[in-house]
């Protein structure tokens, strides 16, 4: 809801240009580049409950203050940027803590199923979020919409408080700089993780660039309302829900490595269909929604197994560092993608920018085709592949109750 709401405010309330919209999206992800490695060190040293609760409280406070500013004197672009940065910082610590916790409480053969369940719940919230943001702004106005978003963050904080008994792994104390360096070296020395990093980084760059251009194109070139754009963007989560529920079954019939590579290609193909159907008049909203469903299906396939592979291969004491290092590479491209998308929409026109970004995305989506990761049929085989393709320390077995 928040990631769609903030750029929507920039377009509809503050009337900024494409570059400004891209900037609002970009600054939410700049903290990934700056703070991911620090978040990894903290998650490996302290119980994850602290990070989950603190991050949710910070995000809710930022959204609540935006609502207060809007109700008082009207929101400014500067206030929106500051709030986006705070929300981005909170998201970094939350995601690193969450993704490092799951493999500590589950055996390796249950990780994919758990990530499929998480991706399904995430897909439902992603479907509801943009749609709710567009609907609430249209019916209630900006301040009430921001209040609802802040209340959701408060609910997340309460949920985080319920996570008890999960402790940080025991490991030798070392300086933060040495811990960061060790995590980076270990992550980059593993060929399967490295290939996933590169594919995820390229995919996220193009996804964010495309969605930034599409927001500007749909509202200004096609004359769609914020509610319609939110519905089109959110309906892609129907495909993500289907993909997350089917991912484990597909991997059993095919391979884990093949499924994750297929997901990247399907995600790119779905977005490339949008400029194809953009001139179908009254049917464009329906056809664009179908394209988003295909994109969501591919993204879910990739995410379920990319996260599972990243959690299954490293040893427990390196989980936080690997998660943070991976996210630095994979998600660090998001601010660049958002800025590039906004700049291209101004320089080439939104319609031409859609074609350029979509075609480029399709080309880079084949990166995993040449990776040895495609040979891995199961997570256990991927874990063994990680041992034989590099890594400074051999993976160790994790107890289900760790």
Task: List strands and helices in order, with pairings.
Layout lengths: L1 H11 L5 H10 L2 H16 L2 H25 L4 H25 L6 H32 L2 H20 L14 H14 L1 H31 L4 H28 L2 H22 L6 H29 L6 H13 L1 H16 L1 H15 L14 H10 L14
Helix pairs in contact: 1-2, 1-6, 2-5, 2-9, 2-14, 3-5, 3-8, 3-13, 4-5, 4-7, 5-13, 6-7, 6-10, 6-12, 8-13, 9-13, 9-14, 9-15, 10-11, 10-12, 11-12, 11-15, 14-15
How would you portray this structure in words?
This protein is mostly helical. The chain has one domain (2-163, 173-388): MFS general substrate transporter like domains (Growth Hormone, Chain: A), CATH 1.20.1250. It contains 16 helices and no strands. The chain has helices at residues 2-12, 18-27, 30-45, 48-72, 77-101, 108-139, 142-161, 176-189, 191-221, 226-253, 256-277, 284-312, 319-331, 333-348, 350-364, 379-388. Helix 10 packs across helix 12. The longest helix is centred in the first third of the chain and has 32 residues, at 108-139. It starts with a helix and ends in a 14-residue tail after the last helix. Mean pLDDT is 76; it is low at 391-402.
Main features:
single chain, 402 residues, mainly alpha, Growth Hormone, Chain: A, 16 helices, globular, membrane, cell membrane
Order of helices and strands: HHHHHHHHHHHHHHHH
What is the correct CATH architecture? Answer: Up-down Bundle
Oligomeric composition of the shown chains: single chain
Secondary structure tally: strands: 0
Q: What overall geometry do the principal axes of the alpha carbons give? A: globular
Compute the number of helices: 16
Overall residue-averaged pLDDT value: 76
CATH class categorisation: Mainly Alpha
Q: Return residue spans where pLDDT drops below 50 for at least 5 consecutive residues.
A: 391-402
| Whole-angstrom Rg | 20 Å
User: What is the CATH topology assignment?
Assistant: Growth Hormone, Chain: A
Q: Structural class of the secondary structure composition?
A: mainly alpha
Q: Count the domains.
A: 1
Describe the sheet with the most strands.
Answer: none
Strand content: under 5%
End-to-end separation in angstroms reads 33 Å
Organism: Streptantibioticus rubrisoli
Subcellular location: Cell membrane
Keywords: Cell membrane, Membrane, Transmembrane, Transmembrane helix, Transport
Region (Disordered): 383-402
